Amino acid sequence: MTTESEHTNLACPKEYLLKMLTGKWKPCIFSYASNGPVRFGQIMKLLPEATKQAITNALRELEESNILERKVIREKPLHVEYTLTELGVEFIPIFKAIEELHLLPVRQQKQ
Amino acid sequence: MTTESEHTNLACPKEYLLKMLTGKWKPCIFSYASNGPVRFGQIMKLLPEATKQAITNALRELEESNILERKVIREKPLHVEYTLTELGVEFIPIFKAIEELHLLPVRQQKQ
DNA sequence: TTCAGTAGTCATAATATTTTGACTAATTGC
DNA sequence: GCAATTAGTCAAAATATTATGACTACTGAA
Q1: pLDDT band at A1 (very low <50, low <70, confident <90, very high)
Q2: Positions of chain C reached by protein Cβ under 7 A
Q3: Per-residue pLDDT for B3 more than 80?
Q4: Residue of chain B whose alpha carbon sits nearest to that of A92
Q5: Got the DSSP string for chain B?
Q6: What CATH number has the domain bearing residue B27?
Q7: Which residues form the HTH hxlR-type domain (chains A, B) (predicted)?
Q8: Smallest CA–CA separation between B72 and chain A, in Å?
Q9: Which of A54, A76, A110, B84 could make a disulfide contact with B88, Cβ separation 3.0–4.6 Å?
């Protein structure tokens, strides 16, 4: 995400901004972080289906988009916290708008 | 999109809803359609970098998500119109929230 | 009947994203 | 020193998404 991938449509700012939030795990992680700082291990427990690598990828992408900030906490059990940046906070209304969809589509189940 | 792809995270409704709107061309096409009915050829002109196939894929996915409706218009030049469905209209606030981001990130340019 | 306009389909290739599974590294308590 | 805790990295494989280029199908006008 440092440079544009071929996927990105340079003509559409909305596509660019949406892309910052999408991916298999990024929306969930964003939601968790919007309720306060989250740790790596905590996310692992909250998303038992996601692997370490998957979570690392999502966190790195959110960092590169300047949505999350990584902070090493030098305390009792040394750990890392991820918090929303100023930009990250600005994305909250987008998620609010998603939550407020009241005409929810019926979701297909896997066979 | 008839059944869930492996990509989809069944635990996260937000991921599911965001996925309906994302992809290289879907956000643009959604925007156009939110200003009134659009035609296939019109989209081709508006998105000169997108191929027919790309546009077809985007339209089909938006149809399958029940965001757009395809209507064959039996008139002078026979053509097809795509309009927002009732569900589609509900997605407009999400795009509004994206437009209202005022702390816009600096966009990297391709080398 | 042939042609332009409209709206596509199809098979294949190229890219991007996600998963898998083994391995690493710093700190703290014993 | 040694193990547990926390937080990762790395290379490779599997999937998903997007692009390419040739081809199709219907309608109405000349």
Answers
A1: very low
A2: 5-11, 15-22, 26-29
A3: no
A4: B97
A5: --S--TTS-TT-HHHHHHHHH-SSSHHHHHHHHTTS-EEHHHHHHH-TTS-HHHHHHHHHHHHHTTSEEEEEE-SSS-EEEEEE-HHHHHTHHHHHHHHT--SPPPPPPP-
A6: 1.10.10.10
A7: 12-110
A8: 24
A9: B84
